[in-house]
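Entry details:
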Amino acid sequence: MGLKIRTVLGFIFGFVLGMVLLLGFNMVFRGVWLSVGLVAAVGILLYTHPRLSMSPQTGPYLATLGFGVIGAWMKSVGPSPMRGLQRMASLMPTLFLLLAAFCAIVFLLRAQGANEETQYRLLPAIVLCVMACILAYVSGDKGGADPMVNWFMTRFGWTHDQAHLATLCVRKTIHFTFYGSLALVGSLLATPRYDLKRACLFGLSLLVCFASFDEFRQHSSPVRTGSVWDIGLDLLGGLFFVGLLVLTYHRQAQRKTL
């Protein structure tokens, strides 16, 4: 059997097996395909980046982020409505998070085989994984506005309308800051000192992936509402934070020329 035929058959087998597993997980954790899609989008960005794609750390890093995101998603969904699968549903998030921890160890060990240009920057890599897991958890039903509205009403004695307005302002500020920070961290991960423009585009592309994931999940939730305007607000935050990064690098370059 020729190499091409084996490759095609292997791809078909892997695709079918992946779809079967995905459908099975989706029966237990509704909508888990969305988190898998997010991980795939991040993987495409990592493997199309000229330096990160050559790093021996890219595979373990994507696995760390992927298992972490899917584990956090499963944790946010809660127990399966199917009684016979509830025990498995309670164990799966922990298993995925343990796999994420194992892959993180491999990621750190792989740093020894990477040169200076392809080695991942440790702090941005860790922060991005943590932010991705937080987003996967709070983007679901548990991240709704009602707890904050109730807190404002009980803490300050405000009416529901006043508390709702305050909550709206706080949450939009969090949106702006969180996604701006995510774009900044993604840009730093791509090592802007080598190629500032490509690093900034990488960070903004990550922002679009995560913001789209967040709003689509909210749109599919019966207790939350997704909005394309939030993606615009997130992108505005990303442009602001990345703009500060560009300004910082330009000022550093000017000082070196003096």
Notes: The mean pLDDT is 82. Residues 9-136 form one domain. The radius of gyration is 21 Å.
